[in-house]
Amino acid sequence: MARIIDGAAIARDIRAEVAAEVAQLRAAGTVPGLAVVLVGADPASEVYVRSKARACQEAGMLSRVLHLPAETSADELTGTIDGLNADPDIHGILVQLPLPPHLNSKMFLERVSPAKDVDGFHPTNVGRAFVGDPTGFVPATPEGIMELLRRERIDTHGKHVVIVGRSLIVSKPLASLLMAPGPNATVTLCHRHTADLGQHTRMADILVVAVGKPGLITGDMVKPGAVVIDVGVTRVDDPSSPKGYTLHGDVDFQAVSEKASAITPVPGGVGPMTIAMLLRNASTAALRAHERRNARKPAGAR
Ligand code: NAP
Fold this sequence. Notes:
three-stranded parallel sheet; six-stranded parallel sheet; 10 helices; 16% strand; Rossmann fold
């Protein structure tokens, strides 16, 4: 039976570490500030934004939510982002996706200053992550998966990691982190057009699944002893649950946990790590701004 990787507990540890960093920064005169821009009234987005704002406040950061109406124009949204880029109290900016259809997300993600892009979605940060430049920001979910593997002492060196999915926010950055010198994994990426998915997943020492299709990975698709990281989160209607739905991963948890050596649950695996790493990125952005400001001060100034 697989060991269950407790992402919620690891995330709690990271959030406590971030809170300690934030306390130090506040004592040095900088209050880390994170702004979240939400356009429209998508219920799932509202839940995510509320939980990001709460996590921010719990870590001692300033949290600012800018909730704009669904009919906000491109010019108005550009103006809001430019205002946050110029605001010295704000160190991190998140533009909550999806945006309403008349607003082109790519254009607005590129409008955020790379120094405040704690989501790591700006092409400058995507490029920095790809070349292994640590001065950028890596998206929180792949960074959270790397941190889970490190803290669980799961060795990636020389291991074959198979990732199902090829998205820009999870799978591609994760592949580049895993194949870099240090982690030294051999990485295979699979997607919708991969012929015979099971043939690939069965070769994985570490299998990461980021698709959004409950039950995609069945017991026979996993090698005995593999580590399985389930990134997928899908709401499935469930009238018996108080919320009316339950969250499901991409992996058939029951069958796969009988074969794997370790597995992340959904919920309580990768999800809590994402928010913890987002806070860490925001704290890092504030620390960098603090250091830049101090470097500009004349000698002897306080
Ligand atoms: P995405 O952009 O929709 O990408 C999904 C990927 O899965 C695509 O590359 C797609 O291939 C591939 N795919 C779809 N059906 C497949 C199949 N039958 N076989 C093999 N590959 C298939 O999604 P994402 O943003 O990466 O998110 C993936 C999942 O992770 C979602 O459930 C999302 O909610 C969840 N997620 C969770 C967290 C967290 O914090 N826990 C964070 C981010 C995302 P093509 O490219 O060929 O279409």
